[in-house]
Design brief:
Helix content: 55-70%
Strand content: under 5%
Number of domains: 2
Shape: elongated
Radius of gyration: 20 Å
Order of helices and strands: EHHHHHHHHEHH
Largest sheet: 2 strands, antiparallel
Oligomer: single chain
Number of strands: 2
C-alpha cells in the first residue's frame, strides 16, 4: 500500500484507500436499486402510498419493473457480499464492542476495543441484509405472477407474500446505516471518493489502520 501514503487531500492530510472504484460502483448500484425497490414496494403495499407509483411511470410499470430491479439488486449485493464477506466475521472484539454500546453512542472510542475494517454494527447489518435478501428473493419468485406464481399452490403464494414483508426489516436497517454514515463524519466520503484520512482510519478502525500500514 505504499502508493496510498502518497495520496493527500486539499489540506495536505495523508489518505488511505478504503474502497476501490469497482467496490464503490458495486455499492451504488445496490443502493440505487434498493431505493427504487423501497419506493415501488411501498407504493404496492398500501393505497395511501399509491402516489409513489408515479416515480416509476405508473402502477403497471411499477409492477413490471419491481421484480426485475429486485434481481439487479440481489446480483449486485451478491457480488458485494462476496467481496466483503471475509471482513464481516464477528470476533471477541466485536462482542466487547456491543457490550460497550454506551461508549459507542457517546463517542468514547478511546475506551473501545480495536476495530478492524468494520465494527460490530456494520457486521450485523451485513448479515441482516444477507438473510433479508435471500428471503425476499425466494418469496419474490413465488409471487412473481408473470413468470413463476402459477407453479406454486395458493397457500405457498400467501405465505410468500407475508415473508416478503421482510422488506420492512431491510428498510429499517438501511435507514440506520444511512444515519450512521452521516453521524460518523467522513464515512460518506469514503464511499464517494474512496479514501479516508489517516486520522479517520486511526480513530474509527484502528486495527484495520495498523494492518494496512504494516505496523
Amino acid at each position: 500500500m505504499k502508493h496510498d501514503s502518497e495520496l493527500r487531500d486539499v489540506r495536505g492530510n495523508r489518505l488511505i484507500q478504503r474502497y476501490t472504484p469497482n467496490e464503490r460502483t458495486n455499492h451504488w448500484i445496490t443502493a440505487i436499486s434498493f431505493v427504487l425497490l423501497a419506493i415501488s414496494g411501498l407504493a404496492m403495499f398500501h393505497p395511501s402510498m399509491s402516489w409513489l407509483y408515479a416515480i416509476l411511470g405508473g402502477g403497471q410499470w411499477t409492477r413490471i419493473l419491481h421484480p426485475f430491479i429486485g434481481c439487479v439488486m440481489f446480483i449486485s449485493f451478491l457480488i458485494l457480499a462476496l467481496r466483503f464477506w471475509h471482513h464481516n466475521y464477528l470476533d471477541r472484539n466485536d462482542i466487547q464492542w456491543m457490550k460497550q454500546i454506551g461508549d459507542v453512542l457517546s463517542n468514547r472510542e478511546d475506551r473501545l476495543p480495536e476495530i478492524g475494517k468494520y465494527n460490530a454494527g456494520q457486521k450485523l447489518l451485513f448479515f441482516t441484509m444477507v438473510v433479508c435478501l435471500l428471503l425476499l428473493l425466494l418469496s419474490g419468485i413465488a409471487i412473481w405472477r408473470r413468470y413463476f406464481s402459477f407453479y406454486f399452490p395458493i397457500t405457498v403464494i400467501r405465505i410468500a407474500a407475508v415473508v416478503h414483508a421482510a422488506a420492512f426489516v431491510l428498510i429499517t436497517g438501511i435507514i440506520v446505516h444511512i444515519y450512521a454514515a452521516i453521524w460518523i463524519k467522513g464515512s460518506v466520503g469514503a464511499m464517494t471518493r474512496g479514501t479516508v484520512t489517516y486520522g479517520w482510519a486511526r480513530k474509527h478502525h484502528p486495527r484495520w489502520f495498523k494492518e494496512l500500514i504494516g505496523k
